[in-house]
């Protein structure tokens, strides 16, 4: 975990800030991150579990998009399941042992970067579906096979990137027992690799692919075009707002040692880290619930478990869907493909 990595003995011994500032920071750290972990855990558990249930029992894996959207909540779900352990350790100390420390560090990192790489694949898949719609449709079976192979490769790559956390993860005593990873000899290489996979690669894919998609949609005509554009801007905005601050802080921290001794900088790390974890809650909404097919299956699930008076609610939703389809002309394949992903 990042927060365990930056709380070290040098911070407490060499900081130029007052001891009162240290005390306030430790109190803030003790209660702020656990609260964030619990909120992300609950929301991420509910949202991603719901997506998995719908894909397993209602929607099935009929397209490449479905394959990616099945792996994304799976990665996010395992990621959020590690958060209760870190929440407890932040409040008290690490009591789960060395093996559990290495395992949870590995699982945490594995699923974090699996999720980010899958986001990259979803972006590229949307690019092909919109810009090369006819070709994508004709090669659907081949794309499905490639997609499954790519998902397997993503998990393998993420496991390799996670190995330093697994190998060098350890429990040490710094005022209390903590589980963390820190190795000066390879930390720079690991940071560069993880930032490339976890931030710059998804960002580059979004900039390039969504720029072309927007250009294509602007030349299309139809009811769905405007909704598709809104979804694109929302996806990019959420990614930038949640991931940029934390990665920027990590880059700054890696360049100059004196940042380790600034209490204000440690506040920045904690807050931006908490913001970055929100993506695990937002991914189900951004990448699943925007699809018409997924929402239809969601209402079926709600009907089956008796959570709504489905005749009225489902009827209203059906009317909305039918109206949407009526306004969508058959020749506007680019716009409808984008919106229904």
Reading the helices and strands in chain order gives: HHHHHHHHEEHHHHHHH
Overall pLDDT metric: 78
Radius of gyration: 22 Å
Number of strands: 2
Could you describe the largest sheet, including whether it forms a barrel? 2 strands, antiparallel
Fraction in beta strands: under 5%
Unreliable stretches covering 5 or more consecutive residues: 2-17, 321-341
CATH superfamily: Rhodopsin 7-helix transmembrane proteins
Task: Supply the number of structural domains.
Answer: 1
CATH topology type: Rhopdopsin 7-helix transmembrane proteins
Question: What structural class results from the helix and strand content?
Answer: mainly alpha
Q: Total number of helical segments?
A: 15
Cα-to-Cα separation, first versus last residue: 33 Å
Global outline: globular
Detailed description of the structure:
By secondary structure, this protein is mainly alpha-helical. It has helices spanning 2-6, 9-14, 19-59, 64-81, 83-91, 97-131, 133-138, 140-168, 184-218, 224-255, 263-277, 279-287, 292-304, 310-327, 333-339; strands at residues 169-173, 177-181.
Task: Give a topology summary.
Layout: H1 2-6, H2 9-14, H3 19-59, H4 64-81, H5 83-91, H6 97-131, H7 133-138, H8 140-168, E1 169-173, E2 177-181, H9 184-218, H10 224-255, H11 263-277, H12 279-287, H13 292-304, H14 310-327, H15 333-339
Antiparallel strand pairs: 1-2
Helix pairs in contact: 3-4, 3-5, 3-11, 3-12, 3-13, 4-6, 4-8, 4-12, 6-8, 6-9, 6-15, 9-10, 10-11, 10-12, 10-15, 13-14
């Amino acid at each position: 975990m990042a927060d365990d990595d930056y709380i070290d003995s040098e911070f407490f011994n060499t900081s130029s800030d007052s001891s009162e500032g240290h005390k306030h920071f430790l109190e803030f750290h003790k209660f702020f991150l656990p609260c964030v972990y619990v909120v992300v855990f609950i929301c991420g558990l509910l949202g991603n579990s719901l997506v998995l249930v719908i894909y397993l029992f209602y929607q099935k894996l009929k397209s490449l998009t479905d394959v990616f959207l099945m792996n994304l909540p799976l990665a996010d779900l395992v990621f959020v399941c590690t958060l209760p352990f870190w929440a407890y350790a932040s409040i008290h100390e690490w009591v789960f042992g060395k093996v559990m420390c290495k395992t949870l560090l590995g699982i945490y990192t594995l699923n974090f970067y699996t999720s980010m790489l899958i986001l990259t694949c979803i972006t590229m898949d949307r690019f092909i579906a919109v810009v090369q719609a006819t070709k994508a449709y004709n090669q659907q079976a081949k794309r499905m096979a490639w997609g499954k192979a790519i998902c397997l490769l993503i998990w393998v790559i993420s496991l390799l990137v996670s190995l330093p956390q697994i190998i060098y993860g350890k429990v040490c005593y710094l005022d209390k027992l903590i589980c963390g990873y820190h190795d000066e000899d390879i930390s720079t290489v690991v940071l560069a690799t993880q930032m490339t996979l976890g931030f710059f690669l998804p960002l580059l894919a979004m900039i390039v692919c969504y720029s072309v998609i927007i250009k294509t949609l602007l030349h299309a005509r139809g009811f769905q075009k405007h909704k598709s554009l809104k979804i694109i801007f929302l996806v990019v905005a959420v990614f930038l707002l949640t991931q940029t601050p934390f990665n920027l802080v990590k880059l700054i921290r890696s360049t100059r040692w004196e940042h380790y001794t600034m209490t204000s900088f440690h506040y920045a790390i904690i807050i931006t880290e908490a913001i970055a974890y929100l993506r695990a809650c937002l991914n189900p909404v951004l990448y699943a619930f925007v699809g018409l097919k997924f929402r239809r299956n969601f209402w079926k699930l709600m009907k089956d478990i008796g959570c709504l008076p489905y005749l009225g609610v489902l009827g209203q939703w059906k009317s909305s869907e039918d109206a949407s389809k009526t306004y969508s002309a058959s020749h506007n394949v680019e716009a409808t493909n984008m919106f229904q992903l």
